[in-house]
Design brief:
Layout lengths: L27 E8 L8 H17 L10 H9 L4 E6 L1 H8 L4 E4 L4 E4 L3 E2 L5 H4 L23 E4 L7 H18 L2 H9 L5 E3 L3 H8 L5 E3 L11 E6 L6
Parallel strand pairs: 1-2, 6-7
Antiparallel strand pairs: 1-4, 1-5, 3-4, 6-9, 8-9
Helix pairs in contact: 1-5
Length: 241
């Protein structure tokens, strides 16, 4: 599936299924909830992009840093295997989710609320009751060509994923890019409002991307796809060789 890379960081990827020291730590998950109203579901690509930005907003929020109220949970989550779960909500479900501590990020048609990490078995009841399935979304029109002057999260063209799974993977890709950036580059991206695109390249381009030295997400294989599958290449302009 075009998953070959020479990047030694991949051997200790926080998204990979190979057992490493981070697996011995207590495990947490970053919850994301996408609003999907029956009468006006969001476009798939916009939902993916909004989820990726939501992860970046959470990572950079002052409450997630230093002595902030979410900082301990964020550190515990990032010290363990990095997990994200996307659930869907509408109507009263969405209003209950909005009442919980978190951040809502809005795209062109999508709304995604991201919450501080929680233990795998410690979800708030108003989030735990939400469905994971049912996040199959479509793009009414093909996405325009990506602007390469901004970050692009390239999705594996050979791996099929539900919209919810793809949203989590896009969030992984954004997080890998964030980790690789300098403080100055992080600040510039944040101050610009985290511009990014999510696109699916042609198979030949995908194979080139996975060997380019850019950060690559390898999924742990908990749901939908095989362990170790390459799902996203995080293509930030300052990370290009």
């Amino acid at each position: 599936m075009g998953c070959v890379t020479s990047d030694p960081r991949a051997e200790d990827s926080p998204f990979r299924v190979v057992s490493v020291s981070r697996d011995e730590a207590p495990q947490f998950v970053l919850p994301l909830v996408v609003r999907i109203e029956k009468s006006a579901p969001p476009a798939r690509t916009d939902a993916l992009e909004t989820a990726a930005r939501a992860v970046l907003v959470m990572l950079s929020d002052e409450r997630s840093l230093g002595d902030g109220e979410w900082a301990r949970a964020m550190r515990d989550w990032q010290d363990a295997r990095i997990r994200k779960v996307v659930r869907r909500a509408r109507g009263a479900e969405w209003r209950r989710a909005e009442a919980l501590p978190g951040i809502t990020v809005t795209g062109k048609s999508a709304e995604v609320r991201v919450f501080p990490p929680v233990p795998l078995d410690g979800w708030p009841k108003d989030l735990a009751r939400l469905q994971v399935s049912g996040t199959d979304l479509d793009d009414p029109e093909p996405p325009v060509e990506a602007d390469l002057s901004a970050p692009v999260l390239w999705m594996n063209p050979e791996v099929g994923m539900s919209a919810g799974k793809a949203m989590a993977q896009a969030g992984h890709g954004a997080q890998l890019a964030w980790w690789e950036l300098s403080d100055a580059d992080r600040a510039a991206w944040r101050d610009a409002g985290f511009p990014l695109a999510v696109r699916t390249p042609a198979p030949d381009s995908w194979r080139h991307l996975t060997t380019s030295g850019l950060p690559v997400v390898r999924d742990a294989g908990f749901t939908e796809i095989a362990p170790g599958s390459c799902t996203v290449v995080a293509d930030h302009p300052t990370l290009r060789g």
